[in-house]
Design a protein that fits this description.
- Helices cover about 40% and strands about 20% of the residues.
- The chain contains eleven helices and 13 strands.
- It has a six-stranded mixed beta sheet with strand order 8-7-6-9-10-13, sandwiched between helices. Strands 1-11-12 form a three-stranded antiparallel beta sheet.
């Protein structure tokens, strides 16, 4: 019995959802209560509902003090060279040309107008899990809303595409004032359902990514890790800038269950009775191995990767990401 438990825990560590998870108390709240030490708490915000106003509030809050355009440089194309003059930024020196000519040249760039951002949100049933006052799906929806507002604020086009075992609803990228409301309306009309096949979905999605841009993938990445990485590399191979946010619930991260617990696969309905005290070590080891694999593989592919606990305030998550990206690309 132990061998069977170990095998199934290892193979589906993320889709197994316990029937006795810790539950967060749900009470009436106001916007002021959504602030925790100045930050915006995801569980509290979820009880306020989703609206463009809330997305605007989160984004405007963390943009304070940042560069006017934190994504500056995403859609910049090399144009030509010119000779270096004192005072030029040394990071634009072309050392390859210097090696050939023994002269200093600066790389010049031509900025494209209207960057396109594609938001790819996982809609599979495993996103319906949550133990902290909101589901991974709710967290992902609002994270997408924040990104959409950020892009539109920069006068860039943004679109949305849902996926599960195949591509789903598609909102083409546009830059107009009504786009955020349309995206949030689509999100509010859908719920997580069905099974996951990330690789198959991404291959079907590629045809919709017609112009090079920023691709933001929001998913719990509960699928075959090697196939998932290969598929996301395809997007990178089409010269898109790719960001992956992997969402994880607190219970999936910590495995806090006690006593005999029946776990149900959220996507297949298969049930398994487990003694958490026996399975915990195996589960946490498997989780760490899988996370390390994603982190290493995406880094090698030139893909930005962030693991997000759904307790993380949205402004903290995005601020940390944007600051880190600015340092890496500065």
């Amino acid at each position: 019995m132990f061998a069977r438990i170990r095998k199934q825990i290892a193979e589906r560590f993320g889709r197994l959802t316990g029937r006795k998870p810790p539950t967060a108390s749900v009470r009436e709240t106001s916007f002021s209560e959504a602030r925790t030490k100045g930050k915006l708490d995801p569980a509290a915000l979820s009880r306020l509902g989703s609206s463009p106003f809330l997305a605007k509030l989160v984004v405007e809050g963390f943009l304070t003090g940042l560069h006017k355009s934190p994504f500056h440089g995403f859609s910049v194309e090399f144009a030509d060279h010119r000779e270096y003059v004192p005072g030029d930024d040394l990071k634009y020196l072309d050392w390859g040309v210097f090696a050939r000519t023994d002269r200093y040249y600066i790389k010049r760039f031509e900025e494209e107008t209207n960057l396109r951002c594609y938001l790819l949100l996982d809609q599979s049933s495993s996103l319906g899990y949550g133990t902290t006052g909101l589901k991974k799906w709710d967290y992902g929806c609002f994270l997408c809303a924040c990104f959409a507002y950020l892009m539109l604020k920069q006068q860039d086009a943004v679109g949305l595409l849902l996926f599960g075992d195949k591509p789903g609803w598609f909102v083409p990228p546009r830059c107009r004032t009504s786009q955020l409301r349309q995206i949030m309306q689509v999100l509010s009309q859908h719920q997580p359902e069905g099974r996951t096949h990330i690789a198959q979905s991404i291959r079907g999605i590629l045809g919709n990514l017609k112009r090079r841009g920023l691709v933001v993938i929001v998913s719990d990445l509960i699928d075959d890790p090697e196939e998932t990485v290969r598929a996301i590399r395809l997007i990178r191979g089409h010269r898109h800038d790719v960001v992956v946010f992997q969402l994880i619930d607190a219970a999936e991260l910590e495995f806090p269950f006690e006593g005999a617990t029946v776990f149900e696969d959220a996507e297949t309905g298969e049930e398994l009775e487990v003694d958490p005290s026996v399975a915990r070590k195996i589960y946490l080891q498997r989780l760490e191995e899988t996370t390390a694999f994603y982190r290493k593989s995406f880094r090698e592919a030139g893909v930005d990767y962030e693991l997000l606990d759904t307790r993380t305030p949205y402004d903290v998550a995005l601020s940390a990401y944007l600051n880190r990206r600015a340092q890496l690309r500065g």
